[in-house]
Structures are given as structure tokens and as C-alpha cells.
Write a structure and sequence with these properties.
The chain has about 180 residues and is α+β, with helices and mostly antiparallel strands. It is about 20% helix and about 20% strand.
Length: about 180
């Protein structure tokens, strides 16, 4: 009887979670983004943007984001990073741009979105973390994840476009690979 209950409970849990947010316990889809003021834990959403999430994880595993600056930090809006070519928001990575993977998930505080140019198919490596709700972005940018811990460290990022002496990513890693 107990065994039958456990099988049903697992099946129901799988059905409820299928196509939904990934649990932060899913270390393969969790990022640790370390900045000088602390660790930011990001729960990735491969169910919403599978190719974009795969790109971020690939770049993370190659150390691409380590040392990059938050080159655009707008109070009440968002903090942007990920320009590995120029460091000022005009570049990306050596990889080709990605096709858009927009969703209906709203941009609210803590949502991580993929930056792009006016071309909807131009996301590459840059991403941003929302400080506040930004409904005007809904359906126009890929949602790749959400901060589940450490938003206080994001709130402490130096503001500016670009900030004077911008904050840099100390280290970014996929949680499944984490050594610390």
C-alpha cells in the first residue's frame, strides 16, 4: 500500500512539474554568480528558452563570464552584463546570435532576461537581472531564469551606464560543477 502511494505521489509530482519552473535543487539548471558583495543564485528556465539556457551554461563552463563587468546598471530597472568582446554592451561572444525564445512569463523583480539589439534574433551572451517590474519587456525578450537567492547582492551593484569603476563578476559557475 505504501509503495503504491509513493509511486502515485512521484507520478503526480512529475506531472505537476513537467513544463514548469525547474527546482533550485536541479543543480544542472542553477547558476552561482559571485560578485564582490555576495553570491547570486539563479534558477535557469530551460523549459522557456532551451537554446538560450544551453548557451549561457556553455559560456559559463568555459569561464566566459568571469571578470566581466556590469556595464549597464539602471536604478529601478535592471543590471546588464555579458559583453565578452567590448565590455560596453556592444559585443557578445564568438558564437552566432540565437533565434528568439520569447515567452509569456512577465518581467518582474529578479527575472533574468537575455539582452539583444532591435533585432529579435540577436541575443548572444549578454543578460540582465531585473531590479523591478518591467511589463513593457513582456513577450519581447527571452526569460532565461530567476534569482532565487542573493538579490541583495544585485541591489548593491554600482549604478551607471557605464558605472564608474563597474562591479565585475568574480566567478560564475553551473551549480552541478561547483567546487565551492
Amino acid at each position: 500500500m505504501l509503495r503504491a502511494f509513493l509511486v502515485v505521489a512521484l507520478a503526480v509530482g512529475f506531472i505537476i512539474n513537467a513544463g514548469g519552473p525547474v527546482s533550485a535543487a536541479d543543480l544542472e539548471n542553477t547558476l552561482y554568480l559571485d560578485v564582490p558583495k555576495g553570491r547570486v543564485v539563479i534558477e535557469l528556465r530551460p523549459d522557456l528558452a532551451p537554446k538560450t539556457v544551453a548557451r549561457i551554461k556553455e559560456l559559463t563552463r568555459r569561464g566566459f563570464y568571469d571578470g566581466l563587468s556590469f556595464h549597464r546598471v539602471i536604478d529601478g530597472f535592471m543590471a546588464q552584463t555579458g559583453d565578452g568582446q567590448n565590455g560596453n554592451g556592444t559585443g557578445g561572444s564568438k558564437h552566432p546570435n540565437l533565434k528568439s525564445e520569447f515567452s509569456k512569463v512577465p518581467f518582474k523583480r529578479g527575472i533574468v532576461g537575455m539582452a539583444r539589439t532591435s533585432d529579435p534574433n540577436s541575443a548572444n551572451s549578454q543578460f540582465f537581472i531585473m531590479f523591478a517590474d518591467g511589463s513593457f519587456l513582456n513577450g519581447q525578450y527571452a526569460v532565461v531564469g530567476e534569482v532565487v537567492q542573493g538579490m541583495d547582492a544585485v541591489d548593491k551593484l554600482k549604478r551607471g551606464e557605464p558605472p564608474g569603476d563597474p562591479v565585475r563578476i568574480v566567478h560564475m559557475q553551473v551549480a552541478a560543477d561547483a567546487k565551492q
